[in-house]
Amino acid sequence: MDDLLEQFDKWLEGDGPAALVMREYLMPVEGSDGVFFPATFAAAEDKTFKGGYNIDRFPDGTNVCLVDSVGAQANRIEPLFASGEYASLVPQIVIVAGAKKVSLLEAGHRAGDAIVRCSILQDKLRAAFDAVQGGDAEPLARIAPTSIVFGVWDSRDTQAKLPRLIASTIRAYDVRELTRSAQYVPAAEYVNDQLLAEPTDNVTHDIYAKRGFVHVPASGSHGGIIATGGIRRDASLHLAALRLLMAGGDPAKTKVLRRYILGLALTAFTFPASRYLRQGCNLVLDPEKPTEFKEVFGDGKREDATLKHSDALAYAKAAAQPFVREPNQTVDFDKDLAKQDVAATLKKTAKAKAPKNK
């Protein structure tokens, strides 16, 4: 057991690598010249970004398209710890809100999410975030360790913030944008056959269109992209940030904490997550470009690294044994706490807007 726990201590030492970096070269299932659909985003409030695909264009004519953001990638990987043999590695915290059950592993803001804050766990999590600000990450790791692995910001309460240890993004290079058009044809000629009255105003016509009673053309909408410069997933595990985690001033507890978080991070980092991202975006590894896995040091030196997912998982299981965690629990969303939360925020907003006495 000691040998198993000590095998990655070199990554926890001050002179160890700053990060582990992985590069996966991807392609659509249709082939390297296949059309696929990246994520679309809403327009910016100031209209500097009009919405649609996030494509950065450069003066030399090249461009880079964001296929899957760092947040989206984290949300795809984190639920791993809710099932199978991975579930025993972290506390399974579930919040019941009405008819819905939400795992902490699925909450958008993790331990800082409103659904957790407005529950019986509120005081415990607030104390954990306060401890983080005081240099002790152990209480948070006991109840919400993946909030440390994937990052968390308690922006609506204590303002405690922990950076992501794992960052993963998929981008496509030198893309060509396509458009597509379609024509909806109703199953019957409802108006012409006098099954419905002819619309006499735009509001009624729009309702007919929305409900499928009239022909609806759709022209020039987003039709996907072709990545002439390839698709790449870049993932980093920031060991330099992990080495900043402390369990107060206790060196022995700090080592146990860091090993535990490292085990979770390595398990998530090496997990072969699904590359089916959305309708029209099913990616696979490019067989002609092998995956790169490197140790990157502070002086810029890069060395080849190898780590099987099975070995990472075995280490995570061993590192989890000596680390005391909160028990699995299911708690209710507290409507009264939610009302208090809203009332307190309204009070602060009103106070901030009130004119100040001269």
Summarize the structure.
It contains eleven helices and 18 strands. With 358 residues, it is α+β, with helices and mostly antiparallel strands.
Order of helices and strands: HEEEEEHEEHHHHEEEEHEEHHEEEEHEH
What's the structural domain tally? Answer: 2
Rounded average pLDDT: 94
* Rg, Å, rounded: 25 Å
Structural class: alpha+beta
- Uncertain segments are none
Question: Shape, please?
Answer: globular
* Total number of strands: 18
Through-space gap between termini: 68 Å
Taking the sheet with the most strands, its summary is:
9 strands, antiparallel
Number of helices: 11
Secondary structure: helix percent: 25-40%
Beta-strand content: 25-35%
Keyword list:
358 residues, three-stranded mixed sheet, alpha+beta, 2 domains, 18 strands, nine-stranded antiparallel sheet
Describe the protein's topology.
Blueprint: H1 2-6, E1 19-28, E2 40-41, E3 52-53, E4 55-57, E5 63-68, H2 70-77, E6 93-97, E7 100-103, H3 114-117, H4 122-133, H5 138-143, H6 146-149, E8 152-153, E9 161-162, E10 166-173, E11 175-184, H7 202-210, E12 216-227, E13 231-237, H8 239-242, H9 251-270, E14 276-278, E15 281-285, E16 292-296, E17 302-304, H10 309-320, E18 329-332, H11 335-353
Question: How would you explain this protein's 3D organization?
Answer:
This protein folds into 2 domains: 2-174 and 230-334, no CATH class; 175-224, no CATH class. α9 runs antiparallel to α10 (309-320). A hairpin with a 5-residue loop joins β16 (292-296) and β17 (302-304). 27% of the residues are buried. The protein has helices at residues 2-6, 70-77, 114-117, 122-133, 138-143, 146-149, 202-210, 239-242, 251-270, 309-320, 335-353, and strands spanning 19-28, 40-41, 52-53, 55-57, 63-68, 93-97, 100-103, 152-153, 161-162, 166-173, 175-184, 216-227, 231-237, 276-278, 281-285, 292-296, 302-304, 329-332. The chain has 358 residues and is of the alpha+beta class. It is built from 11 helices and 18 strands. Strands 1, 4, 5, 10, 13, 14, 15, 16 and 17 form a 9-stranded antiparallel β-sheet that branches. Helix content is 29%, strand content 26%.
